[in-house]
Every structure is written in structure tokens, then in C-alpha cells.
Amino acid sequence: MNHYAILCGSAPEGFRQKKLEDMYDFLINPEGKKYKPENIIVFSSGITELYLEGLLNELFDRASNYENSEVFLYLCAEKEPDLHAEVSGCSVSGIEVVKLGHEEVRKEVISYYQKLAEMMEIIFRVEYVFDNDFVSEESLGYEMCSVQESV
Prior knowledge:
alpha/beta; 26% helix; two-stranded antiparallel sheet; four-stranded parallel sheet
């Protein structure tokens, strides 16, 4: 089983979010989810929807080569969507738009990949959290890794 993760935050330039850092630490912890650091990619200040779609396509292709592979998408927004806002709102079925820094990810994009994962028999987990506890990049004791080809 291979595990892949995309962690997306909404931190201002030069900062990272505490929950994003905690999730990264949990994923690579041998007692946690046991993800390989090279299979985790982190976007502290958001990601464009188009780029996210490209990454998910690539990770789904990789995951399809292994039985029971998992792709985890962690979206850490700065604040909960305003229920009355035109662009970001909530519905019974979940969040319509998640604002990540200056970028937005629409629910339809996530729904598409959830359906694709079912067809491809890939485990696809999505978690939305809200956090405005930012940490200066200078205070971190490690660097984030990007996705690399695993053997």
C-alpha cells in the first residue's frame, strides 16, 4: 500500500499554519500514518485549482499501480466560510468553496476526484480544517518535502 498526501494551507507569505505542521508530523510519524516524506507535498499559502487537479491526476496515476493505495487531501483554511457569502458558503452536503490564501477550491473539483477514486479503486480521503494559528517559517526545525517518484 502506498500513501500520498497533498497538504494545502492558507498562511501569509513567510508563515505556515500550526495544524498543517501538525498533520505533516502525524503523517510521517512511525506511530501515525507512516507516510514517506517524499510522498507528501505541502502548499503553505494555497494552491490554484488547476494545479491541484494536475497533482491529483498524477497521484491517482501513481496510486493505481498499487493495491489499496491512498491519496489524502488536507485543506487547511484560515477561517470557516461565511454562511451568507456569495463565493464561500456551506450546504448540507459540505463546503462549496474553500478559500486557501488567495486561491479557492470548488467542491465540484473534490467531488469529481471522489467519484474517480471509486472507479479506480483508490482510497481518497479529504479533510477540511480551519486554523489561523500561524508559525514563522524561521521557527521551524525542518523543511517540507515535495512528491518524488517512489520505488
